[in-house]
Amino acid sequence: MNGPVERARHRRGRTPLPAIAAAATALGLAASLAVAANAVGNARDRATGNDARMAAALWELPGAGAQAVAQFLGNRVAIQAAEAGGRGPGEYGYEAGALDPVVWIAIDPEPASPSWPAGATVPALLAVLLMAAWATRRRHHPPPPRYPATTSILTAALLALVAVAAARWADLELEDLSAAHVSHALDAASIASATGATPATAARVAGLPWATATALDRPDQLWTMPREVARAITALPPDLRAAGAYTIQANGATYHAAHATLPTASGAAPPPTTLHLAFLGYQETAAPTIPLAATTTATILALNLILFLLPLSARPRTLRRTLAAWSFLAPAATLLLLFTFGPLLFSLWISLHEWHLVDPAHPFTGLDNYRDILLDATWWSAIRNTAVFTLHVPAAMAVALALALLTQGSRRAIRWARLALFLPGITSVVAIAVVWKWLLNDGYGVVNQALARVGIGPVAWLTSPDTALPSLMLISVWMVVGYQMVVFQAGLAAIPRDWYDAARVDGAGPLQRFRHITLPGLRHTLFFVLVTSVIGSFQVFGLVYVMTEGGPLGATDVAVYHIYREAWEFLRFGNAAAMSWILFAVVFAATWLHFRLLEGRRDERRAYA
Amino acid sequence: MKTRHGTAVPPGDVTRATVLVAALCSACAPAPPDSTTLRVALWAGGHELEIEQQVAARYEELRPGTRVLLESAPNGYEERLLTSIAAGRPPDVYLLDSPDIPTFVDRGLALDFAPYQEALGFRVDSVFPQVLDAFVRGNAVFALPKDFTPMVLYANRGVLARAGIELPPTPAGAPATGWTWDDFRRVARAVTADTDGDGRSDVFGLDFPRNLYQWVPFVWSAGGDILAPDGTSATGFLDAPPALAAYEFLTRLAEDGLTPGAQFVQQGDPAREARFASGNQAFLLSGHWTLPVFRDLVTSGGLDLAILPIPHHPSQPTATSVLYASGWAVPPNTANPRRAIDLAGFLASPEAQRIRARSGLAIPSRIDVAAEIAAADTTGVEHAFTRLAEGARATWGAYVRDFSRIEALAVEIMDRRLLTGEPLASSATDVARRVDEVLAR
Amino acid sequence: MRSAARTALLALACAAMAGPFLWMAATSLMGQLEVFSPGRILPASPLWSNYPEALTSQPFARYFLNSLVFAVAVVAGQVATATAAGYAFARLRFPGRDRIFMVFLATMMVPVVVVLIPRFLMIDAVGWIDSYQGLISTELVSVWGIFLMRQYFRTLPRDLEDAARVDGAGHWRIFWSVALPLAKPAVATLGLFAFVDAWKNLLWPLLVTRSMEMRVVEVGIAAFHSTYEINWPYQMAAGVVAVLPIALLFLFTQRYFVRGIQLEGIR
């Protein structure tokens, strides 16, 4: 049944896409595991670096020196002259000797016991097998007419499983490293204490937040251990505390804590002190969650792109057209993917956490941020203000269109007039805000002085909750009209002249020409200006920031200003990200409505025709 | 993106480069900066930055082979600093403002200077104790104080003289032992006038101190406070009688027309300094940073300036002012901890403080240098500042986390009275409750 | 008669729009305290020295150079990416076209403050902080521009392309030699706005540049604002000078988007 022609068609129809998909899956799996292993490796580097730093601090203690360092690190350490320092690769080290380094302390990393994310093995194997089986099936010649959804979903699920297992494995490894670090630190402190150092100095050698047992209950005496951590330690059940080393929860993060009674130098007789150390675990600061999530997402996306092209390869014309279109889109799409979609997904992730910009720990809080915001009256008042503010868009568009029509032509005077109209849009917002604040000043502003001439009492432009937002809307009209006018002019330029001439010959008046030629001709431009201005006005920020700072009494608190403060003033990035996504939902709904209502279906079909 | 301890390059770093983008672009990335370049983050601008550059140049002379790169951001300082710290590339030394202390210290973003005090020649008793206190926890020193300023009342004697009010000749002298709110109100009423006869006042007493950082000394000077002594709650303090008395006193000034109109927009009074200098406002509540603005006018005789204490409640013997300070801090994850500490030590040293004093923006944190400056100043203004700093205490922001949120809430107390007529007791109780929620976190 | 009314109306509009700017220019020539004398609008005697003094207080020449490099690169990038993508969305047929366009458009709706941090981390990861690459690379695509070009290409009559297609031209060929030349007004608009936006961009340059050598004009003005808080004439002088490059650009480019397409010849 397979004649030579048939076979040839099969060969031509044969597509390498399934094989590429399988390879991409395998590559993505390998990348996930590498990311997890890399994170653990980095944490191990940091642990060794911490050992070196503690050794340096020990070396600097009067009465401790090389002997104490050797006692601390055994044969892992070599103390060299500073200038001979083992700065080459393969050496961990630290300069020691107050501010002028005298020696270079070089140490070997602790030998790591080999381990493997065992939980990831099964799903990884399954994923590879699944893809291999699918890719080698004969049915791909010719390619299937439909997108293989089942394969896609199954593979995605397996990839996600692998990522979770790898993350879990990394977490356990990091916990082990953290526990080891705390016990090392206690060793270093004990050795320091044995040479006659005070508890404070010994704790400084350990380089971790600390408190003595007597100070644990007195917040005013704690000086490097955060209050919440000390509270969590005192709250531990006594039998657990006796154990010496334990993990505790504080500030939404896991700390590894340990305590030991310090030995004192022979001959000296201070009372024995118990020293508590706490260490924010590596699993909080070095966990590979984000790179793992990014790698997995990227793999799933790439896989689906390939699967999406597969059915198309059965229809060579459509495939050619698709590829041609994507060659046009590729530069923009790549940049957007990198600098916008990636960050957006990241912000979605952030919105599920309590995320302080510089806090090492980011506790996962699920949808708590969203719930809090939805219940927050000030946020809704900001949304309401933003919506009201958006009402200035139609007014601005009407003015801009009128001005665009008034300034048609290219006489010299018209050219300068156009520049004058465009000026507000190009002036530095910071500088122009000063001007407006001055012009609108209650007492001595030019505007109120002019109004006083004609007998209108002083208007509290920016200082009353009732008028501040309308004032900002007026200024915003002033600012955007020039912009819109220029876009309209470009749109007007696309309407062929001879249409007007023909209309004139037919005896149409200016109003009729406007209605029947200008408006339809500008339809796409009007739609564009409306949509972008509405989106832009939902994002208004600069004007509020420099003019009113959201006041008076929150009357001009708009959504993005609210978000900005939440992020940069109060440093609550989790909340800010969640707010951004809620705002996004609002704006998206509005824009979608515009498209639905104004960019008709008839039009769409014509574009396809 | 990685935290490096010590100066060595961990071997794993190079081999385990996994960031895809980094790998793709490593070919075009510039070489890492020379390890002896130290980056300093600060917010100096204009003349002040020139002077800081002189300080940096002096350090480069002292430590050949070291380059000091000043990364100044007079605008958006916090945004930039926090982002660079979050990215794991902090500057080697940064300027820490007192309201930011809890944010940075509680999160372990400032190295303890205590072990290096001796090597740096830094003694805790060489700086003003009330300034140092904000940067110290137990015996750990988290920043070396740079300079500071108390909030004071600038007075334009010309305006006072026009209203027939005489101040004793020395700038700090009048009123020698402080003055009460009643005294102040009398003076403010006497100077407020309508000079051009349009039916509206154009000379005023004081611009309305709308923000917490401005009005907190009034609460203190009434014998109250805004937070409980342990900084854990506001109810019973922010809404207690002394605080209410302060709000009442200040809002009455506004309601009686003794303050100019545009008081409610936060940045709304861009003209306050100029109004004061041009003789349309008798008093200005501000810190030392405003002084350079008036210097030329004072030396040319265009402005007769007096520095006065903030008035206090009649029941109290003296006023307490608030004090804002800044200090040099070193992040623990800098690539050059030792050199950074050395540089921070120099930036806070008497030599650097003497060079810096030329900008005249703040009072040097060292007692000896501040005394030299005060002695060299013939106008007596500097002396007045140092004297008024004695009774001042550091802002709550130096001790309490999330203080920016508290400040944002506290603005409402008086706004609500002035804009909606709500009784102060009710708005203060409500705001105190919300501040409690912030503190409870 | 109608023409006179039109002229009057236009003059009024110009006065209203340019008024605050003229006030700014007048203030830039006043003495520091003269600004605050009530009722004064024009300087008693123009203090031209404000300009050299304000502009030498910071290395503004360097700032202008940086802004220019930044803006020109951004214009080039955005015009290249937006014309191509806009053309594809308007004129080519491929599966999921309008849905993909909505996804693109959706990125305009998320406030830029939330993507700043991740962007900063990425630029930092490749070591581009405080460099032109870092400043420019994130700004090379503008969805606003893609949308603008899409709308414009849809306005153009189809017959021209069809003629070219009959002659056997490929998609890129048609785009380059038929569609793009017709889209000059939109390209000019896009270029102008890309330039203005880059010139006025404050937040991003503030974050990615550190040294004075890399600072751009808008950041310089903002720093100015904080440093010379009460020296309004200086601030206004800097503001006036910062506008000039864009104003000149506008004067010279406006003929492109005002002159209509000459369709008569090809019809």
Side-by-side strand order of the widest sheet of chain A? 4-7-6-5
Tally the beta strands of chain C.
Answer: 0
What is the straight-line distance between the termini of chain A? 40 Å
Report the biggest beta sheet of chain A as strand number plus sense, adding barrel if it closes.
4 strands, antiparallel
> What is the 3D form of chain A?
extended
Number of helices of chain A: 25
Which CATH first-tier class of the largest domain in chain C would you pick?
Mainly Alpha
The chain-level mean pLDDT of chain A equals 82
- Note the run of SSEs of chain C as H and E: HHHHHHHHHHHHH
Looking at how many chains there are and whether they match, the oligomeric state comes to heterotrimer
Q: What is the annotated CATH architecture of the largest domain in chain C?
A: Orthogonal Bundle
Level of helix content of chain C? over 70%
CATH superfamily of the largest domain in chain C: MetI-like
Overall structural domain count of chain C? 2
Low-confidence stretches of chain A: 5-12, 85-90, 601-609
Describe the largest sheet of chain C. none
